Amino acid sequence: MKPHFGEILSSSPPSLRSRPGNLRGNLLSALWFLFIAACFVGSLSHCQVASAQTQTTVPSPNARSFEARGHEFITPETQKAIDRGLVFLANRQHDEGWYFANSYKRNVAVTSLAGMAFLSAGHVPDRGPYGKKVDKSVEYILSCVSPSGFIKRDDSPEHGPMYGHGFATLFLAEVYGMSPKPEIRESLKSATQLIINSQNKEGGWRYKPDGRDADVSVTVCQMMALRAARNCGIAVPKTTVDNCVEYVRKCQNADGGFRYRLGDRPMSEFPRSAAGVVVLYNAGVTDGRDLERGLGYLLRFPPRQDLIPTNNHYFYGHYYAVQAMWHAGEENWRQWYPAIRDELLARQGPDGGWTDLQINDVYGTSMACLILQMPNNLLPIFQR
After folding, report:
1. What is the pTM of this model?
2. How many domains are there within the chain?
3. Which residues are bridge partners to 145 per DSSP?
4. 296-353, pLDDT tens digit by residue?
5. What is the distance between the alpha carbons of residues 204 and 65, in angstroms, rounded to a whole number?
6. What residues contact 27, with CB distance under 8 A and at least 6 apart?
7. What is the CATH number of the domain that holds 195?
8. Is 289 exposed, middle or buried (0-12, 13-18, 19+ CB in 10 A)?
9. By three-state DSSP, how is residue 124 classified?
10. Using CA atoms, how far apart are residues 275 and 319, in angstroms rounded to an integer?
């Protein structure tokens, strides 16, 4: 039996595109909701969701009902927080499409995550209140694609260029089919091929696309991009996915968490462990001992401010943890999401943003908006 949130908390201090969630808020009218629904349905002509290991199956009635009811978790207070967060992001975008984000300005990862935050609210390129913002982000990312397919901006500081490349590739895959720009597909293909070509012999990736080393965190970022690209019909070899899954499995520790790299001492941490669980789900692993142990580890750290410090990759960890609980099923989701939702609402700043001490507030706000909007179920990469 899979562990669930309630058991842990009581003892310690998707698939084909589904219909969009309820787009509420003052900015979106009922007519706009119908228009966005048509846009997402129309994008099916471009994107096909396919598992890297298994054939697509029709969800059970209970699964469909669970996904359809997701919007019920977005309370009026939550929608208000999301709206304020999107205003915060919109006000910090440069005319070129990148974001004013302290030392990380012009960063492709930050730009891509902000773009995805708008997409998660139903805003598509050139359509809707923030459509222009999305389109500018797309234009900026396309301008950063090199002839080799590497998505990088040399004059922007970053923790590791493959992080930026992975998130930018993911963003292009999510916006593909929503924009008429023909260059998106070619850029997505070349970016995907660069990931495939740079996988190291262990099955993972690290900071540079040279195939010399690997760690769990960067590996998960590339795997998410590959899955999103495959959803859009871009060819991804099965061996690439299989080798990635094998690498992640080998990094799992006895306590269910994940170490940073093969060969490191077996020390687990919540952020990368959440990422490790999500990559298994996205690779088509839906059950088994690895997932049970991984979920068991995550459930030792329910959303509570005294358990996960804000300077320990807080937003990164919960970005993946909320996806893990969405995949894990309704019982865990019904207890995990309200907890992280309420915690994020309490942490929102007066200006509508969320503070991240390690990267910047644009990054923190983008991640918070993505977490809060998971129940919208609009982005294919998050669907069960």
Report:
1. 0.84
2. 1
3. 151
4. 999 999 997 655 555 578 999 999 999 999 999 999 999 999 999 999 999 999 999 9
5. 36
6. 83, 129
7. 1.50.10
8. exposed
9. strand
10. 9
